[in-house]
C-alpha cells in the first residue's frame, strides 16, 4: 500500500479532508445504530425538500430532460438567477456574469482554482467553515486565518483585515451570515471592509452568501458587491439553494462576478464536472420561471421557506 501512496499527487497529499465529513459519517453510523444524535457537522436544514420541487424534478426527468445541460446553466435558469440577484442581492448582473454550479461548493472551488497560484495567500476570517481551508490547500494556496472576536460579534474588523494583508494576499473569503458563528455583516461592517479593500486593488473577494436567508431578529441582509459597487469588478457573489430550500443533496449553486473570472470558472467546471444535472436545470414549462418549481417560483420571491407550510398545496 505504501508504494501506491507515493504515486499520489502532491496536491492531494497536502489537502486535509475537512473533519466535518468524518463527523457526519460517525453521526450517520450512530443513528443507524439506534442512537438519538444531534449532528452539528454538515449544515443540514431541519425540514425536507418541499414536495412540489421533488415532483417537478420527477416530471422533468419523465419529459426526457436528462441530457447534457449547457455548461454554465440553461439560459432560462440563468435569467431566473439574474432576477433573484437583482431582487435579493441588489446586484444588476448580465447573463455572462452568472455561472450555475454543482452546489455552492463548486463555485468556491472554481473561483479558488481560477485565482490562486502556488504560495498565494487567501485571507479567511475565523472561525470559518472547514471547506475553505481544504480548497485553498488543494489549489496550493496558503490559508491565512484572521480572528473575529465575540466582542466584535464575530465580524471581521477593518484593522484586523489590514494587518493580515501582505504582498502575497490574493483573495479574501467572506461568509455572512457565517458558518459556524451565525454572525451577519451590516452595511456599516461591509462599508468598513470595502474601505480597506480599496487600498489593495490586487485582492479578489469571494462573498459566500449561502446562508443569506438564515437571518434572525429582523436583521437585514446585505452583500459587499452591492454596498461597494466601485470594487464589484473583483468580487464574486456566491449563493445557492442548499440551505434556504433544504436542497443540500441536489447540488445546485450559482455565482455572479466579473465576466473574465466567470469564464475562467467555466473552464474549471468544464474540466471537473460540466453543467448541473439537467432535470434540475431545465424549466418544467416555458412560463414556469425557475428550475423545477411549478407552483411557488421561489427564485422570484414568492415562496420564502418560512411561509412554506402555509402555502403548500
Ligand atoms: C459556509 C458554507 N459555504 C458553502 C457550503 C457548501 O454549500 P453547498 O452544499 O451548496 O455546496 C457550505 C455547506 O455547509 C457552507 O457551510
Give a description of the structure:
The chain has 313 residues and is of the alpha/beta class. The chain folds into 2 domains: 31 residues, no CATH class; 251 residues, 3-Layer(aba) Sandwich (Aspartate Aminotransferase, domain 2), CATH 3.40.640.10. It contains 13 helices and 7 strands. Strands 1-7-6-5-4-2-3 form a 7-stranded mixed sheet, sandwiched between helices. The longest helix is centred in the first third of the chain and has 15 residues. It is globular, with a radius of gyration of 20 Å. The protein starts with a helix and ends with a helix. The structure holds pyridoxal-5'-phosphate.
Domain count: the total is: 2
Q: How would you name the CATH homologous superfamily of the largest domain?
A: Type I PLP-dependent aspartate aminotransferase-like (Major domain)
Query: How many beta-strand runs?
Result: 7
Point out poorly predicted stretches: 282-313
Q: Give the CA-based shape.
A: globular
Which assembly state applies to the chains in this document? single chain
Cα-atom Rg, whole angstroms? Answer: 20 Å
Helix vs. strand class: alpha/beta
What secondary-structure arrangement, pairings included, does this model have?
Blueprint: H1 2-6, H2 10-13, H3 19-32, H4 51-62, H5 75-89, E1 98-101, H6 103-115, E2 121-126, H7 130-139, E3 142-147, H8 158-164, E4 169-174, H9 187-198, E5 204-208, H10 224-227, E6 235-240, E7 253-256, H11 259-272, H12 278-281, H13 308-311
Parallel strand pairs: 2-3, 2-4, 4-5, 5-6
Antiparallel strand pairs: 1-7, 6-7
Helix pairs in contact: 6-7, 6-11, 8-9
Bound molecules: pyridoxal-5'-phosphate.
